[in-house]
Amino acid sequence: MDLDFLAFEGPLAQRGIGVIAPFDLALERELWRWVPMEVSLHLARTPYEPVPVSMEMAQLVSDSRHLATATRDVLHVEPEVVAYLCTSGSFVNGIDYERSLTKAICEAGAPDAVTTSGALVEVLHQLDLHRVSVLTPYDADLTGKLHDFLAEVGVDTVSSDHLGLGGGIWKVSYRTIAERILAADHREAEAIFVSCTNLPTFDLIEPLEKALGKPVLTANQLTMWACLRRMRLPIVGPGQWLREVS
Question: Which InterPro entries does the entry mention (predicted)?
Fold first, then answer.
């Protein structure tokens, strides 16, 4: 038997990202598209909560005790960073609470931590953006909390639209999302932020950036960008402006 293959050291050394996702996340396949081949995603979920997508759900899925438990669930595979992959859960209580969530993850043993809303703040500062348009799948009240969060970090929401969905967010079609992004844009907006890690956006970013001539920033994109940045790895996937600051 020819055993020449044994001379190889094996596959590229694996590097890991721990991902804490809300219980209803349905976009794992999209999430994997944002990372290079040598990076593995190790997912843990927050406990099921029998409520619709709302202010109440955002509060429930952002309980720091749940995040600490989920962090410990993925530590045995030695992730280099742990991400709380939830936009509403990381903005609903403001910037100070967002920072407390990353602290809770690190105190549970993670070597580094990011949240989706924290990643959004990093990108807005990196790109020196101060006026944005927003599209969310939430109701008006929860969308308003995003506006408040952005205002806390010195960013004005010049226009906004929301889909008013209480569930099934991952089922929204690309066509609907693209039409609503175009409608939400404003001539004074320097970028568009599309909220929610359960809203599919991967294949829309590049054509919409070309059509609008400005960054189209989405939740999963930003979260993985922040993780890869901490790992000193280049961004994977669409996003002309993000590649310039990665």
Answer: Iso_Racemase_Enz_sf, MaiA/AMDase
